[in-house]
Write a structure and sequence with these properties.
The structure holds two protein chains of two kinds.
Chain A lengths: L1 H20 L12 E2 L2 E2 L11 H5 L6 E4 L4 H4 L20 H4 L5 E3 L4 E4 L12 E5 L4 E6 L23 E2 L5 E2 L23 E3 L6 E5 L7 E6 L13 E5 L6
Parallel strand pairs in A: 2-3
Antiparallel strand pairs in A: 1-2, 4-5, 5-6, 6-7, 8-9, 10-13, 12-13
Chain B lengths: L13 E8 L4 E9 L5 E5 L4 E7 L8 E7 L4 E8 L1 E2 L11 E4 L4 E5 L13 E5 L4 E4 L17 E4 L4 E4 L8 E4 L3
Parallel strand pairs in B: 7-11
Antiparallel strand pairs in B: 1-2, 3-4, 4-5, 5-6, 8-9, 9-10, 10-11, 12-13, 13-14
Classes of the chains: A alpha+beta, B mainly beta.
Amino acid sequence: MRFIAMLLLVFLALGVHAKAEDGASEPSTNGPTLKGDQWTPTRDASGNITQAEWDGLPLNRWIELMDSSMESQLSPPYGAPAGYKAPGNGPTQAHYNAFTGAGWDEKNGRFYHFGGGHADGGNNMLTCFDVARGRHSVVMPPTHQSMMPDGYKVPPRNQNLSAACYPSGKCYHFFPSTETPAGDDKPCASHEWSGIVPASDGSTRCWTRRNGGLVRRPRKLIASDSSVAAASHSTVIICRKPDSST
Amino acid sequence: MTSEGGQIGDNNGYYRIVKYDPVKRKEVGAFDFDAAVGSGVSCVDQNGLLWYLAGDRAGPAQQVNVSTADLLKSAGIRKRTECGGRRPVYEDGDNPMEYVPDIDKILVWCTIGRLGEAQAGELLEFDRSTFTFSLFPVAGTPAPVQRLMNNKMRYWPKQKVLVLQLATNVNARVIKLTK
């Protein structure tokens, strides 16, 4: 009897040891899943990074959230109709780096990106990076080139992708449905610096310039698309100067 | 209150801060702000004070200035005041900054360094009483430095992390600042 009990204890001990050795590949319940400074966190059933992962991160250390770049998660046509091709010299990367900041929803931990402009890129999509999930989503797909006036679509001649000029002679900072070909009323891509803010808390502020008439003011409100994520997005306001040249 | 970054290059240094009501969809107030010539970045601290850091010219001889405005009183407070210490260089969209309430500090990520002072990739602390920059130690491998960051470095109070959105093809970075 004693021998059988000992044998059982040995088997139990071996089983626990084997499980512990295999633990690196199992979901973490007690701390962050780090390999060096690279973080591939465990997510719960809804896709959120677990609280144990956040709680266990070391203090004051650079941590790389793996597989979190926009281009690793989103790809053309970004929800636009097939055949979409953005005008500009670097349409995808310009979404972040063409003099572009981000709206920050501090409560929900979400960045909102809207960029491009000048000659850099004509992709006017609005994207969201949900930090809680480490996931990007397209909130507003870009305008398909079939809805753009001809002159707008032809780089490098067109160095001002922030304005769409029509055969009527009128120029707009969006693609108006009243013009031909019919537009979708979405704003043109534009350098935004830090002029993009979620308006959920009613405390929006915009920078302006006093002289020269280059006053930044809200030109276009972008409604949210609540189907993108579990929780609805905020309304995002893009502030831009009315005579924008960039 | 959320903080809004600001960055405008090639300007005359005079600004107007506009309060905008997103519900009414119109401006509901404004005041002038004698801030700084050149590119800069801003954040808002726990007292509703807007801190605007900017360089006065391009190049290694650039002087860094700070200006402040009281958003609750709708008034500019401090005009261009020279900063010291371990300074970065300010160009378009460089050196994103953020006020972190849980540690009561303004942090600046240096994206352009200068000889003998801040180096690109360092996280800096900006002292609001002495107007000086100093190193804020962060271990590990710094994120690859990106230009034109503007305000893509933000603090998320819920998880007490600083989050950096760097480029479309670069992974996000986080820095846990307190438990």
